Each structure stands twice: as structure tokens, then as C-alpha cells.
Amino acid sequence: MRDYIKRFLIAIIMALCVSLLFLGGKHSQAAGLNEMKEHWIWPADGVISDTYGTRQGKHKGIDIAGKMETPILAVDDGVVIKSYFSNTYGNVVFIIHPSRIVTVYAHLNRRNVFVGQNIKQGDVLGKMGKTGQATGIHLHFETHELEWRYDKKYAINPERLLGKADVGETVQGGIASMGRGVLEASTHAKPVITEQYVVKQGDTLFSISKKNNVSVDRIKQINHLRSDMIRPKQILIIE
Ligand SMILES: [Zn+2]
Fold first, then answer.
1. Residues within 5 Å of ion ligand 1, judged at the Cβ atom
2. pLDDT in tens, 95-137
3. How much is the pLDDT for 96?
4. Which one is the CATH code of 42-173: 3.40.109.40, 1.10.390.10, 2.70.70.10, 2.40.10.340?
5. For residue 188, how far is its CA from the centre of ligand 1 (angstroms)?
């Protein structure tokens, strides 16, 4: 009988160890920049016109050049912490994300959000422009760990989160960068044919899926929608 209990206890302890190992492994995988790479989306349609660290290291972001009034999208869920006009950034929006990373969207033609506003990934924060110190129409996009500081001490290369992008490459707003191969396809060799659909009043995912001959599930997958909720003026990528 005692032998039975001993064996039973050993089995339980082993099961616990195995499950702890499993959970521990899962947990460490979920943390860190790799996880974010998989679900951040590009903030705008355009062409990479400058990268991080250029201009003698003073350029602390990446530039996406595009058309005037191109929608500027939040790369991930978050909260607006600043939305104002600065002489250098022009119209600029700052978002803090649950990961504590702060993203900055500068030179906007206009801003559509207010401080304190909750933002979902893909929400339109404003429109592309060339306000502030900008020579052409582009989005200047920065990422900072913990906080934005005047000396930009905590700036990190946005490519770490968005994926590699060289000058001259085309990127598509609303599309996840890494881990899904979509950017891979859109920046190199054969592009995936996509279209942007602007949600109108009264649209549902079902009506959009019928109109564009694509399944609701596929629309949700491409656009990383967690529910069937869509809002007018929201931009959806349709294959
Ligand atoms: Zn820039």
C-alpha cells in the first residue's frame, strides 16, 4: 500500500514538473519583441524613403513616403498620450501600447484622435502630410521603449518591430509585417494583389465579403480583427 502511495506521489510530481516546463516555455516565447513583430501592422501605404540611424545617427525613425491624405494607422492597440502640433514634428500623435512601447506618427496633414482616446490596431490616427520640418509628403514613424524623451534616448529601430525594410521598398498599411509572410510578398518579388476598402455606414463584414467575393474569415484574418465589429471609415485590406 505504501509503495502504491509513493508511486502515486512520484507520478504527480513528475506531471507537475512537465507542466511547469511547458508553461515556462510558453511564457518565455510570448514575451519580448518577437511576439510583437508578429502582430504589428505597417502604419501607412507608401515607399520607405529613409531608415533608422541615418543623418549621422540623428534620424531616430523610419520614413514612409506616400500620397497626401494617405490614412495613418495605429500599429497596435494603445492609448493616445499626445496629439498636437510641433514646429519640427508638425501634426503628431503619440500612442502608448500595452507593451510599454511608445509609437510616434509625425508630419500628419491632420490628426483624427484626442489625448486619452483608446485605440485599436488599424484605427486611423490621421492623414499623411508634410507639416513641420518635412521636405516631402511622408510619415515619420518612431518607436521608443518606456517613454519618449527630448534626446530620444530610448528610441529603438522600428524595423525591430515592423520587420526589415530598405529604402525604396513598398509597404502596405494595415498588413502585419513578420511571421505571416505578407510583407515578404508585398516588398519583394511578387506582390499580393490587395485593395483597400473603406467601410461605409451600414456595412457589415458579411456585406463586404459578398461585395468583394472573399470570406468573412479571410477578411478578419488579413485585418487581424478580433470581432465582427467594424466602423465607418475603417480601412480593410481585401485580397
Ligand atoms: Zn523621418
1. 61, 63, 140
2. 999 888 999 999 999 999 999 999 999 999 999 999 999 989 9
3. 95
4. 2.70.70.10
5. 23
